[in-house]
C-alpha cells in the first residue's frame, strides 16, 4: 500500500477520510459506555455507584494500554514518513512484546488491589462486593485489550482507518447486545448481574482483537510484526516509551482526578460521587467523538513531520482544532438543554437527578475551550513530543483543577467541584497555546526547515 496520500491529498479531505471512520467508531463506543452503565443502573443504584468507584482503576488499565499504543503509532508513522520500513517493523514487533508484558503486570496488580482501593472511598461492604465482582471478571481481559490496541494503532499508522472502525464497532455492538442478555439472564443465558456486565465487555474487546488478527492475516500491511524483531532493544524501547509514557500519564490522569474528586465529594454525600460517575459516562459522547478526530490526526502529523512537510502539519492541526470546537459546542448545547433527562437515564432518584442536572450545566461551560488542549495534546503526541503533551494534561487534570475544586468546595459546597472543571479548562487552554507554539517552533519555520530535513 502506498502511504504517499498522507502528504499529497488536500488537507481537509485527507482529515475527513482518516478521522470520519474513527469518529463513527468512537460514537458507537460512547453509546456502548452509556448502554453498559444504563443496564448496570437497572441492577441497583449501589451497582452504578460501585461501577463509578471501579472506573478509575479500569481507566488506568486502559490508559497504560492506549498510551503505549500511541507511542507505537507515533514511531511507525514517523518511520514510514522517513521511508524506513525496517524500523517501522521493529517498532510494531517490539511494541507488541512490551504491550503483552504490561498487560500481565496490570492484570495481576489490579486484581490484587481492587478491594483495598474500593475501601478507600466507601465503607459499604455491599458496594465493595459489587465492585470487586465486576473487576475480577473484567480485568483478566487486559491482554486482549492491550494486543488489540497494538493492532489498532498499526492499522491506523498505515491509513487503514476503516478496518479499525469495523473492528471497534463490532466489539461495541456485541457488548451492547450481550449486556442485557448476560446481566438479566434473557433466553438461554444465565442471570449474572455485575459479572454479566463485565463479561459482555470482555467478549466485545476480544472480538475486536480477533477481527484485527483475521484482517492482518488475509490482507497484509506494509508494516509487519516479525519474530526476529520481538526482542526489545534499548534504542527502539526509548523511542516507544518517549511518547508512550507521557501518553499513558495523559490518559491515566483522569483516574487520579476522579479519585481525588471522589475524596472531596465524599465529605458531602455519596450522591455526588454517583453524579460524578454518571458525568464521566455521559461526557464520553463528546470527548470520544473529539478523540476520533485526534486519532485520525496523529498518523497524519507524524507521517508529514517525518517527511519534512512542516507547513502541512500546521494546516492539519488548525483544521482538527476547528472541527473539535464544533463538536464541543454541540455538546455544550445538549448539556444545557436537557441535563435532567440525561441524568434520568441512570437514576430515578429526584435528589440525584437535580444534583446531576446542576453539575452538567456548570461543567459544560468549559467544553468549548477544552478543544484547544485536547487537540494540542493529540498533535504533540503524533509529532513524538510526549513531554509537552504531558505538561498540558498535568495542568488540565491535576495542577489547576484539584486545588480549584478543594478551594471552591470550601466556599460554595459540592457545586464548587463542578465549577473547578471550567476554571481548569480555561486556564489550560491558555497554557496549551504557549506550550504548543514553543514545542513546535521549528515546524512553524516551514519550507527552509523542510529542505534541511530532507538533506539530513
Pick out its properties.
single chain, mainly alpha, 456 residues, 20 helices
Tell me what the structure shows.
The chain is an all-alpha fold. It has 20 helices and no strands. The protein starts with a helix and ends with a helix.
List unreliable stretches of 5+ residues. Answer: 443-456
Count of helical regions: 20
Report the average pLDDT across residues.
88
Distance between the termini: 26 Å
Strand content: under 5%
Number of strands: 0
- Broad shape: globular
Major β-sheet, in short? Answer: none
- Percentage of helical residues? over 70%
Output the structural class.
mainly alpha
Radius of gyration over all CA atoms, rounded: 22 Å
What order do the helices and strands follow? HHHHHHHHHHHHHHHHHHHH
Short summary:
With 456 residues, the chain is mostly helical.
Question: How would the blueprint of this fold be written?
Answer:
Blueprint lengths: L4 H4 L2 H33 L1 H37 L3 H35 L5 H14 L3 H16 L3 H24 L9 H25 L15 H32 L4 H13 L1 H23 L3 H28 L1 H5 L6 H14 L3 H16 L3 H14 L1 H12 L2 H25 L1 H5 L1 H9 L1
Amino acid at each position: 500500500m502506498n502511504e504517499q496520500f498522507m502528504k499529497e491529498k488536500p488537507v481537509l479531505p485527507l482529515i475527513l477520510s482518516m478521522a470520519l471512520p474513527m469518529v463513527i467508531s468512537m460514537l458507537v463506543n460512547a453509546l456502548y459506555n452509556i448502554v453498559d452503565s444504563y443496564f448496570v443502573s437497572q441492577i441497583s443504584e449501589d451497582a452504578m455507584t460501585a461501577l463509578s468507584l471501579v472506573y478509575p482503576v479500569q481507566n488506568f488499565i486502559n490508559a497504560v494500554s492506549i498510551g503505549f499504543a500511541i507511542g507505537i503509532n507515533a514511531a511507525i508513522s514517523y518511520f514510514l514518513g522517513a521511508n524506513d520500513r525496517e524500523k517501522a517493523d521493529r517498532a510494531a514487533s517490539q511494541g507488541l512484546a512490551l504491550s503483552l508484558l504490561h498487560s500481565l503486570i496490570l492484570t495481576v496488580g489490579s486484581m490484587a488491589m481492587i478491594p483495598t482501593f474500593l475501601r478507600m472511598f466507601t465503607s459499604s461492604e455491599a458496594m465493595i462486593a459489587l465492585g470487586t465482582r465486576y473487576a475480577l471478571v473484567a480485568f483478566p481481559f487486559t491482554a486482549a485489550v492491550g494486543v488489540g490496541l497494538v493492532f489498532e494503532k498499526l492499522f491506523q499508522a498505515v491509513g487503514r482507518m476503516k478496518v479499525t472502525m469495523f473492528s471497534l464497532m463490532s466489539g461495541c455492538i456485541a457488548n451492547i447486545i450481550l449486556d442485557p442478555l448476560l446481566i438479566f439472564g434473557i433466553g438461554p443465558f444465565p442471570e449474572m448481574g455485575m459479572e454479566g456486565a463485565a463479561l459482555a465487555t470482555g467478549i466485545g474487546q476480544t472480538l475486536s482483537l480477533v477481527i484485527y488478527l483475521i484482517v492482518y492475516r488475509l490482507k497484509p500491511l506494509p508494516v509487519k510484526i516479525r519474530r526476529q524483531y520481538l526482542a526489545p532493544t534499548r534504542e527502539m524501547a526509548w523511542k516507544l516509551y518517549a511518547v508512550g509514557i507521557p501518553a499513558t500519564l495523559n490518559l491515566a490522569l483522569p483516574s487520579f482526578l476522579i479519585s481525588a474528586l471522589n475524596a472531596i465529594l465524599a465529605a458531602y454525600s455519596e450522591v455526588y460521587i454517583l453524579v460524578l460517575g454518571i458525568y464521566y459516562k455521559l461526557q464520553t459522547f463528546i470527548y470520544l467523538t473529539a478523540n476520533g478526530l485526534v486519532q485520525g490526526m496523529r498518523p497524519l502529523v507524524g507521517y508529514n513531520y517525518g517527511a519534512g512537510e512542516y507547513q502541512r502539519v500546521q494546516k492539519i492541526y488548525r483544521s482538527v482544532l476547528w472541527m473539535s470546537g464544533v463538536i464541543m459546542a454541540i455538546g455544550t448545547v445538549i448539556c444545557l438543554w436537557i441535563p435532567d433527562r440525561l441524568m434520568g437515564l441512570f437514576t430515578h432518584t429526584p435528589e440525584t437527578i437535580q444534583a446531576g442536572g446542576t453539575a452538567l450545566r456548570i461543567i459544560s461551560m468549559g467544553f468549548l475551550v477544552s478543544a484547544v488542549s485536547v487537540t494540542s495534546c493529540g498533535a504533540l503526541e503524533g509529532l513524538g513530543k510526549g513531554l509537552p503533551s504531558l505538561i498540558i494534561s498535568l495542568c488540565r487534570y491535576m495542577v489547576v483543577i484539584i486545588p480549584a475544586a478543594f478551594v471552591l468546595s470550601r466556599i460554595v459546597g459540592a457545586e464548587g467541584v463542578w465549577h473547578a472543571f471550567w476554571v481548569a479548562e480555561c486556564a489550560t487552554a491558555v497554557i496549551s497555546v504557549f506550550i504548543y507554539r514553543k514545542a513546535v517552533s521549528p515546524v512553524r519555520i516551514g519550507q527552509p526547515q523542510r529542505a534541511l530535513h530532507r538533506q539530513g
